[in-house]
Design goal:
The protein is of the alpha/beta class and 356 residues long. It has one domain (3-311): TIM Barrel (Alpha-Beta Barrel), CATH 3.20.20. The protein has 12 helices and 10 strands. Strands 1, 2, 3, 4, 5, 6, 7, 8, 9 and 10 form a 10-stranded parallel beta sheet that branches. Helix 8 runs parallel beside helix 9 and helix 9 (236-249) packs parallel to helix 10. The two termini are 32 Å apart. It binds S-adenosylmethionine, 6-(5-methyl-2-OXO-imidazolidin-4-yl)-hexanoic acid (DTB) and iron/sulfur cluster. 6-(5-methyl-2-OXO-imidazolidin-4-yl)-hexanoic acid is lined by residues 39, 55, 91, 93, 126, 147, 149, 186, 216, 218, 221, 258-259, 286-289.
Length: 356
């Protein structure tokens, strides 16, 4: 879908948008299923990058101390506990700029992935930048999906991060696609971006070929000590609209209602499910931040008549469309080029630099 199509959808009367999203959802997914994913930070804090929303950046005084990579057996214990609690996807995150083949830490990560992948859950990792070689080795070790978010529009990205570029993010995504892993890629709302930035982000995701297997939509959890600690919250209807448009634009992707559920009411979350969200992080903790209690989530799903989705660890990545160029920028010609910012300016809706 193009930016204009996404824009038109987004601005429909809410009930029209919801009806269309629901139809698409029911045509592609069991109506009442939700995927339960457990997150574990296998290496916390001390990251050299300056992402202005992140508690794990070493550039800010956030109270998150830099830790070491967890031992394989400790991770396995957490993965078994996640499976026992009903989780079907285990996502491991590391606060690194990236990983390099041939290093001890990468070998340790491969050992962890080999272990976890034997448990019958989908295995997702998010380790920062990857080269082609690293991506292939992770795939071989048993990774189902690699999470690497574009986070916002290419135009707003430099306001949020200066230590790497939007293009760097796309390059890693390209390596993940080429290695045959599924791409898990989405973003955050609440970074001081405009609605148009959010739609531009979706436009870029629509250009991925193959399409992303899952699209996490995070709401900023303002972290004390980060430049975005005072950012204004996003209105729930804006979040619902974005999820509905994502559902229509990327019908086969799981749309994950990700960080920030503690800031939403149960009614707000319910609207997000109705709009097409069919995956959540499940368990009391995200990476460093809190998440609703597992029992509370199970109770909500039960009250809504929703059931956990079964795992598909052998899942093949979504097929590529042979009629379009392969890679993460099959559609949006402006991404990652010097004139991308000019395009945004022409739309005349940009009013923010960084939020604080
Ligand atoms: N270092 C890796 C990376 O940058 O891809 C993996 C970890 S990073 C924490 C994964 C994602 O978490 C980010 O891309 C962002 O979308 C999300 N995230 C991080 N901090 C957040 C916050 N305070 N609120 C909401 N989402 C956040
Ligand atoms: C994603 O999009 N959200 C998750 C996961 N991918 C790695 C991370 C959310 C982090 C929330 C803030 C924290 O826990 O520090
Ligand atoms: Fe590091 Fe990832 Fe946090 Fe950025 S989002 S500071 S790369 S851990």
């Amino acid at each position: 879908m193009t930016f204009d199509q996404l824009h038109q959808l987004y601005h429909l009367p809410l009930f029209d948008l919801l009806r269309r999203a629901r139809d698409v959802h029911e045509a592609h997914w069991p109506a009442d299923e939700v995927q339960l994913c457990t997150l574990l930070s296998i290496k916390t804090g001390g990251c050299s990058e300056d992402c202005s929303y992140c508690a794990q950046s070493a550039r800010y005084q956030t109270g998150v101390d830099a830790g070491r990579l967890m031992a394989c057996e400790a991770v396995m214990e957490r993965a078994r506990a996640a499976r026992a609690s009903g989780s079907t996807r285990f996502c491991m995150g590391a606060a690194w700029k990236g990983v390099r083949s041939g290093t001890r830490k990468f070998d340790e990560v491969l050992e962890i992935v080999r272990g976890v992948s034997k448990l019958g859950m989908e295995v997702c990792v998010t380790l920062g930048e990857l080269g082609a070689d690293e991506a292939h080795q992770l795939r071989e070790a048993g990774v189902t999906a690699y999470n690497h978010n574009i986070d916002t529009s290419p135009e707003h990205y430099p306001n949020i991060v200066s230590s790497h570029t939007f293009d760097d993010r796309l390059q890693t995504i390209r390596h993940v696609q080429q290695a045959g892993m599924s791409v898990c890629c989405g973003g955050i709302v609440g970074l001081g971006e405009t609605v148009d930035d959010r739609l531009r982000m979706l436009e870029v995701l629509c250009g991925f070929n193959p399409a992303p297997e899952s699209v996490p939509i995070n709401s900023l959890m303002p972290m004390p000590g980060t430049p975005l600690e005072g950012a204004a919250p996003v209105e729930v209807f804006d979040l619902v609209r974005l999820i509905a448009v994502a559902r229509i634009a990327l019908p086969k992707a799981k749309v994950r209602l990700s960080a920030g559920r503690t800031q939403l009411t149960e009614e707000g979350q319910t609207l997000c499910f109705f709009a097409g969200a069919n995956s959540i992080f499940y368990g009391d903790k995200l990476l460093t931040a809190s998440n609703p209690q597992a029992e509370q989530d199970l109770r909500l799903l039960q009250r809504l008549g929703m059931t956990p989705q079964r795992p598909d660890p052998a899942q093949a990545p979504p097929p590529a469309d042979p009629a379009r160029p392969l890679g993460p920028c099959g559609l949006a010609p402006a991404v990652a080029t010097a004139d991308a910012g000019a395009g945004a300016g022409e739309r005349g809706e940009r009013s923010v630099a960084a939020a604080s």
